[in-house]
Amino acid sequence: MWTLQEEIAYRDALIEKVISVANDGNGTLSRRQLGEFRYGDTVIRLIDSYGGIWNPGASWGITDPLRATLSINTTDSGKYSDEEKDGGLWKYDYQSGGSGGKNTKMRAAMEYQIPLLWFKKTESGGYIPYKVYVIRDFPEQKFCYIAPDLALASAAKSNSSLEKRYAQRIMKQRLHQPEFRSRVLIAYETKCAICSLAHGRLLDAAHITPDSEESSSTSVTNGLSLCKIHHASYDMNILGIDPDFIVHVRKDILEENDGPMLQHGIKEMDLVQIRLPVDKADQPDKDRLATRFEKFSTQ
Ligand SMILES: [Zn+2]
Domain extents for the chain? Predict the structure, then answer.
């Protein structure tokens, strides 16, 4: 049997791989990928076929018995009442009417401070993977709290209100950002809205109204799927997007001569129309674009 350190190392590497495979695309994995996940020379089942808590036995691709639950999932079936709580912690409800058996290994995850996978099902049917820890367990009431990081979860209980607010804000971001990214990338068919680059790993979900502003939103209409270079160019006002979805490159940049990246990657994007989501309801908010474009134009 693995030592605790070996098991934690195995889990850390597996979880990293799962998140990395999801981010090669739009940030989600299909139910099928979760049922037969290729990891090195093995194929591992990462999710329970029926319930929310997955405690795999030896026949599921993992040779050593695990001390604690490998994954939990939140479906949108309405069967579970998992919800976000103040303080950035998530409440995870154990299976209704489930035996204590499965939950025992959730308790072990908390006691050993072992990371596990949380799969959150999206509207599109894919699952977003998160690395989480079980923070507090309420077996009688059949629920527990989970968080993306042990240090942050502990800081969220700090006596210092500054430290507490900071931890809560970061935890909230850590849990919301992957959802925003996947919704935006799905709307844009995993392509850059400006240059059509189709490598998920090189794409970000950019905010039109910056995240730091009060009026920001995690709606897809406040997002743009942009490759790394166009995201940075948009954030630095090297280029702007007007409310009619047309790209404008800054004048001094247009007058500059440099290599192919500047020429083809940026200058030739001047006055092109961005790709828009097929679903009109997902298209960028014109008012947000206008406010942001004003900043570009008056810089
Ligand atoms: Zn691009």
Answer: 4-175, 190-297
